[in-house]
């Protein structure tokens, strides 16, 4: 499976942003991509920097206008597309939702972000209801996709549950960046931690992993890009910088089986000893 990540900056013009998405999908398809991964909330600026009621007007149903556009492009170019939507489920119930369109344009499924941050510059708890779709892979023409979203990427439990449910690759649409007030050393530590924890998920589960992040400065957040694809031993297959780019890699579909035979972490899990993991904290 050849996977392509579309990393770009976002303006206040949704059509311009969707134009970037379309061009990225077209370029990916021309390069032989089977799967295109887009970044988190790719239709516009990252609005969660502050709490504003009017931002709820940006939400839309799923399926809806964005999935219709992505569906048409998936069918036109014959690729599976993983996109991101601010979903209006009902009045007062909104989700940060990843959507999957199969290569024939069929709506294959959705994943609603489970872990919702509330950090400086990332006031997502004001906007998003925690997801209730569970950690279930989405079946497509190119395989079983373990789709998660951004803050989920820090939690090993989410990746593990996707792996246990048969995911063949872990995918993370993402919007993460630096606080410009942090010094260079702190910024470097944060970026390294972000890459390292996800490579750890790949290794611990014997699966390839791809994370697509946005770039550019938006209302005080400097999104660091650095989208990447790694293999089931955490080996880096492709990595972007901090500029707009279309990044491709070819994970070997046979490697997870080979790796799990020599590093059988799933076999050796002591599931009888993990009851305490269901507690918030062991006081």
Primary descriptors:
alpha+beta, six-stranded mixed beta sheet, 283 residues, Nitrilase/N-carbamoyl-D-aminoacid amidohydrolase
Descriptive account of the structure:
With 283 residues, the protein is α+β, with helices and mostly antiparallel strands. It has a single domain (3-278), classed as 4-Layer Sandwich (Nitrilase/N-carbamoyl-D-aminoacid amidohydrolase), CATH 3.60.110. It contains five helices and 17 strands. Strands 5-4-3-2-1-17 form a six-stranded mixed sheet. A six-stranded mixed sheet has the order 8-9-10-12-15-16, covered by helices on one side. The protein has a three-stranded antiparallel sheet with strand order 11-14-13, covered by helices on one side. Helix 2 links the parallel strand 2 (35-38) and strand 3 (80-90). It starts with a strand and ends in a 21-residue tail after the last helix.
What structural class do helix, strand and pairing data support?
Answer: alpha+beta
* Spans of at least 5 consecutive residues with low confidence: none
> What's the CATH architecture name?
4-Layer Sandwich
Instruction: Domain count, please report it.
Output: 1
And the CATH topology?
Nitrilase/N-carbamoyl-D-aminoacid amidohydrolase
Rounded radius of gyration (Å): 18 Å
CATH superfamily: Carbon-nitrogen hydrolase
The biggest sheet, with number of strands, parallel, antiparallel or mixed sense and barrel status, is:
6 strands, mixed
> How far do the termini sit from each other?
46 Å
| Overall geometry | globular
Tally of separate helices = 5
Helix content: 10-25%
